[in-house]
């Protein structure tokens, strides 16, 4: 995924606020790229532009070279499937089991029941929850619920996985389990993972590269190995 000169302005004239100012970065397949910044930096706005819920004021979001920011409504819906999102709140349906939650996007797509069953079993296995398929969200830990959310995001076989504060609010142990799962997905599925967070310590655990966002600007970016070598 490439972000090119991405700019978002809210309001007009005197009241215009530049929330994102010409952001540029690229996340390669098989890479976890973190964007870290304090409250108000523009992280949620960036997340919404990346998962195509908000249109940038100018600039582009490209996946495999295809500009997704200029698409019409109908094409946009299909393009959204290329980007799986996980949020801080797991967003699971409380009256559906883990398996039923993961099956939901497949049902929307009209995948046959037999095929959906096969895919759900494979996805739950991938996130290490095969033995929790029949559990309801309240019967799962926070980390397990987040892993169900990841399985659901993967159901549509996205090329990009967007993590929007997905480990915020988790205890260190659950965070570590999500971190190792994301690294596995990066390596096994060759996903481009964009990891947005306010937690620098999690960035150091999970990311290959990081950009620091402040007041809508990237103020610093680099490979994690270089940051750790040269504090
Ligand atoms: P973060 O997620 O890093 O806390 P946000 O993207 O939520 O940052 O917000 C960045 C800035 O953009 C804030 O100053 C916020 O007030 C402003 N902002 C966010 N959404 C809107 C909106 N819909 N209209 C006007 N300003 C907004
Ligand atoms: P193959 O080409 O043999 O399917 P892959 O490594 O592409 O091998 O996929 C291995 C398994 O992972 C397949 O069952 C596929 O359905 C699944 N898979 C591949 N890419 C994704 C993805 N982006 N999201 C979810 N599942 C995926």
Automatic annotation (TrEMBL):
It comes from the Bacteria. Residues 1-231 form the ABC transporter domain. The chain holds residues 2 to 232 of 382 of the full protein. This is ABC-type methionine transport system, ATPase component. Keywords: Amino-acid transport, ATP-binding, Cell membrane, Membrane, Nucleotide-binding, Translocase, Transport. It comes from Salinibacterium xinjiangense. One of its GO terms (molecular function) is ATP hydrolysis activity. GO terms for biological process: amino acid transport.
